[in-house]
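Q: Predict the assembly, please.
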Amino acid sequence: MKPLLHILSFEWKNLWRSNVLKILLLVVLGAGIYGIFFGKFEIDKQETRISQVQQYERHQFDSLLIWARLDTSILINKEKYQKAVSPTGVGWNKHFTYYLAHEAPPAAGLCLGQRDLFPVYYGFNVTDLARQVNAGELANPMKLLTGNFDLSYVFVFLFPLLVIALFYNLYAAEKEGGTLLLLQSQSISLRMILFSKGLLRLLIIWSLATVLLLLGFVIQGISVFEHGYLFFRWLLIIYGYCLLWTLLMGMIVRLRKSGALSAMLGLGVWLVLTLITPALLNLFVMANEPLPNRAEMIHTLRSLNDKNWGSPKSFVFDKFYPENPQYFKKGDTTDFNKWYYASFTLLDKESDALNAQFEEQVGRRNALLEKWEWLAPAAMMHERLSQLSETSRQSHLEFVKKVHTYHQELKDLYYARIFEGEQFSYQDLQKLEEQL
Amino acid sequence: MLRLVIKKEFLSSLRDIRLQISGTILIVLMLTAVLVGRHGQKEIQTQRTKAQSAMYDKWLNQGNKHPHSAAHYGQFAFKPKPVLSFLDIGLDNYTGISVFLEAHKQNEVQFSAAQDSNGMTRFGEMTAALILQVLLPLLIIFLTFDIFSKEREEGTLKLIHAQGLSMRQLFMGKVWGTYLMVLLIYLPIIILAYLLLDQRSSNLDPAIGSKFLSLTVGYAIYFLVFVILCVLISGFARNSGFALLTLLGLWIASCIILPKATANLADKVYPAPSQFEFRNAIKKKVKNGIDGHNPSDERLASLKQKVLDQYGVASIAELPVNWSGIAMQAGEEYTDRVYDQEFSRVEEIFNKQNRLSEWVGFINPYLAVRNLSMSLAGTDFHHHVAFAKAAENYRRAFVKKMNKDMEVNHKPGVAYGDYNVGQDMWASIEPFKYNLPSTSKVLFNQWRSIATLAIWLIGLLLLASVYAPKISKL
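A: Predicted assembly structure:
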């Protein structure tokens, strides 16, 4: 144990005196801090957008509450009152647009994941949902392509480079510096010395990772105590990833090649694992597993819509009432509003079925990528981090599910009034407001 | 003498085992990327053509109905997969694929591939562009980092000098020798890629030949720039290790870190509005008028007066034409103006963001060649916008035709449900066809990138001729 500590402390002094280590650590630290601030900036932007729509929604709903109490004996108040209390809306204008936001999970700013590809909120009314939630967020595709410089990027791409830079001349420096013979004449084996040198470097890298992650939590205002488990799991994944790269570099060092060749080999492995394998996987999957033609969805809905409008009202009612008997009342086969809203339920049903089909197709394709994911540890690590931070595509799908549930809840409230032929009472509106 | 140096450099690198291995890997990767990419591109293009014609069939066979109902039924436009996207996929996975064209509303081009994929997609796709832009420069680094120091260490540099060869000649010899090696890897595959093009590809884009040629030349210049830069740096480096570290550092900064930092910075400098703000601005302008003082009901009233005066009648009922048709078309044209304003505002913001990366290209030739290549492959932002505009123009034209028919043929007094047209009318709308922008237009859009490459090349040649004689021989 003593010789190990001795070597460690000597090597530490050695490393610390060379400017190379300081510069490298500073560069990676700087990149990491930039990444932390960048992630914070992106999440803040999303949060601003969310609070913007939430404020707008509340403000709009407040007017409804005021309008619902207007004195309707005055002519100009009548229209506003109608707007507030008609669940069917007035004319072609629907009653109200509700928003549901996908609030940023705590660690989203550390790994932005796929979150930038999707809207962080959806606005919808009680008509069919599918055509209201397929709008994207305005985003420059160039930015989406180049991706985000967040902390996870620094860990996934730059840390392996740091490992390579610290390890490539672990052996070669001794040889090229002429100290190798001196070392070999010591009582401790060369392997032990090299191992200790490697261990020290790994400890330095782990420390830097810990410092960066702590900084990330602090700067982004994520409480380490509250989210201790999250912090711990992040740390564990990063430690494992750094260890993997250390082992790979250890294997290269064992070959005992010159510094230049070891560096090239290391970089070659880095290229293969972070750039080439994921790109090849994407190439093969993209060429062989086509994505669903989602335009089909719009087409199916417009055709059904066309049929609904082109047929007698019974076309819709005959399908609607058997499935929704709670709304059935004798003799309700001609009312326009009932027919109109019943038809949206048919559209919702159709689109849910089609969407499930699309997701299955997409799922098959992504399962294929996941099956081969282990070939690309960098992509795997990034995917794990984004799952951990709830910024993966899966998290978005879960949000979409919530949108569906909320939409259904709203529909239940609206349909109950529409099929009773009633208007919203003030209490109804208050109840709706509580849900906002 | 120069020729001898070139030959020596070329042959010695050809015999270098490191090069043999990495060169072979590169060639195999390129072959895979080109062959599989071309296959994938063809598949996707076939799918889209099929989808496009299937949707047009649906339009033709929608049955008899009122022209305005048909405008609501709508049409679709599918973005053709540009032929050269198999060489450079560019933004293709991040831009939408199809757009629904309907009355009253300009929809966005929707459903990007990235939205349907997991995180792996963000790591990019193996295309020729990735190899040529990122990996081949690495090979150049491996070829050149010890090109002077080795000779210096072995003492041959002094010998060569004693033969009467000037340092400048030796320098250029090394540059051309290395460049020849690079071309040996690059040209066969690019020729193979060219042979993969067929008649169908030139149907899709008649300018494919000149685009391909420009692409080839663009990359050839990029490699030359890189070779001169590397030879120059290794000439002045203390030793080969230092040269290697410097070059790799430069490579990592310019190919891995800078592009990301630039795009992220651009987003901060020129912030884009959110979808919510965008839609709200459109709604407001349609309702209150573009200047905010021309609300929709006033617009309608003045239009009504104008039409009544034109036909010299006192009321809508006396008009010989269909008032709704006129009003609807006027409404379309007004919203079109609003859409044009708002969409081009956002487009301009994104263009500014992208231009920032084009300017940064002046210090980072990787960005210049990346933008140029994407553009020539038809997968950059300009192409996306060009498609969206073509689709929108098509929408406006067919909606206008429907409104016009309603105005002229749907006689006043006839109920909406009683005026129907059929297939003849639908067939009078030609299927959607989109022509990719011409080569000159693409090159004009990319003048900054082209200028960047030219400046780098000329600048480095000048630098080399001034500084090459100062390279130490010891």
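The beta strands of chain B are 75-78, 98-102, 105-106. The mean pLDDT of chain B is 86.
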